[in-house]
Amino acid sequence: MSGSGTTRTGTLPHTRPGDAPAETAASAVGAAPAASTADAASTASAADAVTAAADLPWAEELRGRTVVVKFGGNAMVDPALHRTFAQDVVELWHAGLRPVVVHGGGPQISAMLDRLDLEVRFEAGLRVTTPETMDVVRMVLTGQVQRELVGALNAHGPFAVGLSGEDAHTMTAVRRPAWVDGRPVDIGLVGEVVAVETAAVRALLEAGRIPVVSPVARGADGEVYNVNADLAASALAVALGADRLVVLTDVEGLYADWPRSTEVVARLTAGELDALLPDLASGMLPKMEGCLRAVRAGVRAARVVDGRVPHALLGGVFAADGPGTTVVPDPAPEGAPVPVPAPPSEEDDA
Predict the structure, then answer these.
(1) What is the Cα–Cα distance from 283 to 258, expressed in whole angstroms?
(2) DSSP classification of residue 124
(3) For residue range 123-171, what is the model confidence (pLDDT) as tens digits?
(4) Which of 170, 171, 190, 169 is nearest to 179 (CA)?
(5) CA 163, CA 148: separation in Å to the nearest integer?
(6) Per residue in 195-216, is it b (16+ CB within 10 Å) or e — as a string?
(7) Of residues 19 and 23, which shows the higher confidence score?
(8) CA 111 to CA 19: how far, in whole Å?
(9) pTM of the model
């Protein structure tokens, strides 16, 4: 995989499956602290998931491919789920994939705003961001949440590198409008990503690292914008040509008839989702909007999974009929050629 302005800087001194005799998941994740019985069981289930994935006939095609993961919700504030998420991401790396993590930080931002006696308000599922709020957003996302996540990943080896959407102009945004009941609402410094420069992220991937990206973007107008993490992950997945997008959230998936039913829609096409989008609850709206944008712009599948379930990420990536809700592109018109993804190049698989 290549990108303008990138330089190959070498690979990590860890091996991927197939490069050396098979490892157990416990040895693969390496220098974790002494684990409790629950942690040991959690690691064993991760090993089972990766082993099962390796036996699937289509698993090999994922080697060398990029998977963008949006990390958010309760998994960010539950220490046990935080640890298992970090294990899962490292397992993806050992399975030969190229994970990229985009994280949110809503609970932490709200907690800090409360401490500073600043207003916490949402419109259309997006945080109203004043200049004072934006200072807190930058501080919490890049100075707290990102560092904790990078640390959790690096407990298993020299894997993760953190960066913001501001760094190297990775994300450029414009002010995003919001509409409530058909009328415009000013939500302040909330950005819509309009351009993604992938060189810095690709350089990290080519060096064998796991990029951890905070959803803060620069604007051509000189402003800095708070970007919804679901939409930032979607934009980055499209720009990187990712094979799939996985969004962790605090529900089981997209409910078919909420609140009358908790039945989850297992799979739907982009067109089917587009028809449902106007009626979705505000919390689910940006997640499904991000999935819709991704699959319509070339990502092969986008899946929303319940991040409250340990190792949900592995199921979201590897399981053909996994948990949550999967969004796929609309079927090609009858008689149209079916596009076949190009295999990873030798450089991609290095």
Answers:
(1) 13
(2) T
(3) 877 889 999 999 999 999 999 999 999 999 999 999 999 999 999 999 9
(4) 190
(5) 13
(6) ebbbbbbbbbbbebbbbbbbbb
(7) 19
(8) 45
(9) 0.79
